[in-house]
Write a structure and sequence with these properties.
Aldehyde Dehydrogenase, Chain A, domain 1, six-stranded mixed sheet, Aldehyde Dehydrogenase, Chain A, domain 2, single chain
């Protein structure tokens, strides 16, 4: 059992409500521990602490902030086994995914941002108007309200913590209510390596109350959210009253496009991994698989054969490929999509049912014979259910791939480099992979367009998201009356 407290102003504290919330292990349906049930009053305390810490933290040299973030990454690396097990206990994701993917990549991103702190760039100083020198300053925004999701709680917390702190901001982080453990542990590690009190605060509790209080608070200068599109819309509405900076990574409905000249074995393998990663609870998951007609039947036969071999079960076993869905409600949501599809005449090639026994498990599912306008093609299912469809021409597939409201991720599978580059130009997605799907790098940006949000995660572009630009313009002449003053006052000399 893991029973943790919130982190406010460098201290482990209970909520003013004195109430606690159980965190359910999705694989067992039993309590994995508990955290405080925070309130708007707790948010007020955390924001006050972050505001008080901001001036000192933002005035540290980049080297000083960098050093602390590098120490944080090192400390987290040393504790990866315990943190990975904790992550799996609250999410149900396979331990092999936590230990070999999520946590190492998250720590690498913190380390990258630690280095990036020393590379804050602007336009070169120079004379862009006669008689004046212009200087560009990039400065921290202030207090950042960060809202992390439940599908990648450790990884998404790191994606928000790293660039915000590196740029000199302070943070109030609200983890998802059902996955709060590892965010608190990162904050505790930050204090242990010397990051000052109040710089990194964590408030746990209901999303509507905690997130709403952050969005409406006048002393919160920016909101960074990873979540679904509906939540993003609410955040925009709540933040509008104070005109906050927003950074939103929202939903996705990624197309996985297989042309007839693709390496079919590689495409099938890639589709299994991309479609069912994290039990399909991934905004970049390949949920719409399109295969050119001449290879459609062969692809589908091979793909379904591989999907039937996916090992579903205890996430602590090294042989488990996918675990449960995050909650009973999420399993019911996925089941609802599949049941409605079946009633509409869409074919279920494999899976399509919950698994018996404890845990929120659902069979890996492949759907076929869906039309472009069907909800399983248009809406984000967020579970282990993918749709396979065929196409004829390049023009047709570009239109279908772009024909959804999302624009986060996509992939193209082909041996024709010219086609790959041409189609990647036409796809309306923030990420386009060629002959693979899912890998990311700390040095390269990740973000969406359309209703998948705006703003970059990862890379120096994310770092810049957490800064304001200031133009400093200095007169070089020392003259009392400038040559242009007559346009406002007096006569031309």
């Amino acid at each position: 059992m893991t029973d943790l407290k919130m982190i406010i102003d460098g201290k482990e504290v209970e909520s003013v409500s004195r109430q606690r919330t159980d965190v359910i292990n999705p694989a067992t349906e039993k309590s994995a521990g508990s955290v405080p049930k925070g309130t708007a009053e707790d948010v007020e305390k955390a924001v006050k602490a972050a505001r008080q810490a901001y001036k000192k933290w933002s005035r540290l040299t980049p080297a000083e902030r960098s050093g602390m973030l590098l120490k944080l990454a090192d400390a987290l690396d040393k504790d990866v086994q315990r943190l990975g097990e904790m992550e799996t206990s609250q999410t149900g994701k396979p331990l092999k995914l936590s230990l070999n993917s999520d946590l190492p990549f998250a720590n690498d991103n913190i380390r990258f941002m630690g280095a990036q702190a020393r590379m804050l760039e602007g336009a070169s100083a120079g004379e862009y108007a006669a008689g004046y020198t212009s200087i560009i300053r990039r400065e921290p925004i202030g207090v950042v309200g960060s809202i992390a999701p439940w599908n990648y709680p450790y990884l998404m917390a790191a994606w928000k913590i790293g660039p915000a702190l590196a740029a000199g901001n302070t943070i109030v982080l609200k983890p998802a209510s059902n996955t709060p453990f590892t965010a608190i542990e990162i904050a505790k590690a930050a204090l242990a390596v010397g990051i000052p009190e109040g710089v990194f605060n964590v408030v746990t509790g209901p999303g509507a109350e905690i997130g709403g209080a952050l969005c409406r608070h006048d002393d919160v200068n920016m909101i960074s959210l990873t979540g679904d599109t509906a939540t993003g819309k609410k955040i925009m509405e709540q933040a509008a009253s104070s005109v906050k900076r927003l950074h939103l990574e929202l939903g996705g409905k990624a197309p996985f496009i297989v042309f007839e000249d693709a390496n079919l074995d590689a495409a099938v393998q890639g589709a299994v991994v991309a479609g069912f990663v994290n039990t399909g609870q991934d905004c970049t998951a390949a949920t719409r698989i399109y295969v050119q007609k001449s290879k459609y039947k062969q692809f589908v036969d091979d793909f379904v054969g591989h999907v039937k071999k996916i090992r579903v079960g205890d996430p602590l076993k090294p042989t488990t490929d996918i675990g449960p869905l995050i909650s009973k409600e999420q399993r019911e949501r996925v089941a609802g999509f599949v049941d409605r599809a079946r009633k509409a005449g869409i074919e279920v090639l494999t899976g399509g049912k919950p698994l018996d026994g404890p845990g929120f498990f659902y069979q890996p599912t492949v759907l076929a014979k869906a039309k472009h306008e069907d909800e399983v093609v248009q809406k984000e299912i967020f579970g282990p259910a993918v749709v396979v469809m065929s196409f004829d021409t390049e023009e047709e597939i570009v239109q279908k791939a772009n024909g959804v409201e999302y624009g986060l991720a996509s992939s193209i599978w082909t041996s024709d480099v010219t086609r790959a580059l041409r189609v990647s130009r036409e796809l309306e997605f923030g990420e386009v992979w060629i002959n693979d799907h899912l890998p990311l790098a700390s040095e390269m940006p990740h973000g969406g367009v359309k209703k998948s949000g705006f703003g970059a995660d990862l890379s120096r572009y994310a770092f810049e998201e957490y800064t304001n630009i200031k133009h400093v313009m200095a007169d070089l002449s020392g003259e009392v009356r400038k040559g242009w003053h007559f346009t406002v006052y007096g006569d031309q000399a």
